[in-house]
Amino acid sequence: MTVSTSDVAAQATWPLVVNACRMAGLDPKGAEPVRIADNAIWSIPGNIIVRVTRPGRRAAAHRELLTAQWLAECGVPAVRPALPSAVDLPEDRAATFWERLPDHTVGRHEDVARLLRLLHRLPAPDHLLTLSDPAAKARTRLEAVQHAGVTSDGDMAWLVGYADELAVAWRSLPQGLAPAPLHGDAWAGNVARAHDGHAYLLDLDSAAVGAPEWDLTSTAVKVTTTATISAAEYERYVNAYGGYDVTEYEGFEVMRGIRELRMTTYAIQTAIDHPHTADEARHRVACLRGLNGPRPWTWTAVPHPPGSPGPIV
C-alpha cells in the first residue's frame, strides 16, 4: 500500500500510520496527510485524526491524552481523543487518535487569548510536569541537525552556546504571574476556529505547569520579532486575555529569545526535507546573531503541506 503524496516526510511516516492503525483495530486505507511537522498528522476514514510523534516523545503523547481528557472534564474547548490510549511505536514514538474537528480555519489571536485565559485559571492537574527548560526543545533539534549542512559549523556552535545561555537565564527569571497550567506552544496555528465561531485548542503535547508569560510570549513575538501582526491586533489579543501585556514583564526578553531560537531551529530542521528553505533558516540565524539590524525582522513562513492549519513562522 502506498500513500498518494510526494512529500518525503509524509512517505517516511506512512508505514508508522499503517502499523499504528492496525494495532488499534482501525483501517488505514484512504489515509491522507494533514500536516507533517514536529508530529505527523494524518486523517483516516471515520473522522479520525492520527498523530505520530517524533522519536523520544512517547511519554509526552501519553500525557497529551491525559491533558485532553482533563480539559474535557473542565469544559475547555479542545481536541478530544477518539481512543483513550496511545499506541506505542519503535524509537520511543507513539500514535494517538483524535476526533476530527468540524471544518475550521486558523484561530484568531483573540481566540488564543480567550482560551489561554480559561486554561490559566484552572488548578493544575497532577499529571502535568513543570516547565523547567523550554530551550531544551531547541537543543534537541540542534543535536539532530548539526551535521545536516544547513548552517555553517560556526553558526551551529554559536546556536548551541546561545541555547545554553538562555537555559541559564530561564532559571533566574523574575516572578511574574502565578504558575498555572500551560498549553506550551500557544500560537494561532494551534487553535482551530470552526465556521460557527467556536475555537478549540490543538496540539496539547507541550502542556505543562509554569509561568503563564511563556504562553503569552508566543503571540507577542509576532509583533515584536517578526511583525506578522499589527499593533492593533496585538492590543486586541491583550484585551481578550484580560489586559495583561507580557512585553512589559521583566523576563520577556529571555522568553522571547527562547521562542525565537525554537522558531529558528524549526526552520533549520525543515530545511533538511525542503532544501529550498535553507536561505530562510540561515537568515534567521543571522538575525539572532545581530547581523540584520534590530527587531522586528522579516521572517518568511516555512512550508506546510496542503490542508494544514496554516504556515509556521
How would you describe this structure to a colleague?
It is a single chain. The protein has 313 residues and is of the alpha+beta class. The chain has helices spanning 8-23, 58-74, 109-120, 136-145, 153-170, 212-224, 231-241, 252-273, 278-288, and strands spanning 32-36, 40-44, 48-52, 87-89, 93-99, 104-106, 180-182, 191-194, 199-201, 208-210. Mean pLDDT is 93; it is low at 1-6 and 305-313. The longest helix is centred in the C-terminal third of the chain and has 22 residues, at 252-273. Helix 5 (153-170) runs antiparallel to helix 8 (252-273). The strands form three sheets. It has a five-stranded antiparallel β-sheet, with helices on both faces. The protein has a three-stranded antiparallel β-sheet with strand order 6-8-9, covered by helices on one side. Strands 7-10 form a two-stranded antiparallel ribbon.
Write the layout of secondary structure elements.
Blueprint lengths: L7 H16 L8 E5 L3 E5 L3 E5 L5 H17 L12 E3 L3 E7 L4 E3 L2 H12 L15 H10 L7 H18 L9 E3 L8 E4 L4 E3 L6 E3 L1 H13 L6 H11 L10 H22 L4 H11 L25
Antiparallel strand pairs: 1-2, 2-3, 3-5, 4-5, 6-8, 7-10, 8-9
Helix pairs in contact: 3-6, 3-7, 4-5, 4-8, 5-8, 6-8, 8-9
Strand content: 5-15%
The N- to C-terminal Cα distance equals 34 Å
Oligomerization = single chain
Helix content: 40-55%
> Given the helix and strand composition, which structural class is it?
alpha+beta
Low-pLDDT segments: 1-6, 305-313
Mean pLDDT: 93
- The tally of strands reads 10
User: Gyration radius, to the nearest Å?
Assistant: 19 Å
The main sheet comes to:
5 strands, antiparallel
**Helix run count:** 9
How would you sum up the global shape? Answer: globular
Please trace the helix and strand order, writing H or E for each element. HEEEHEEEHHHEEEEHHHH
Strand order of the largest sheet: 1-2-3-5-4
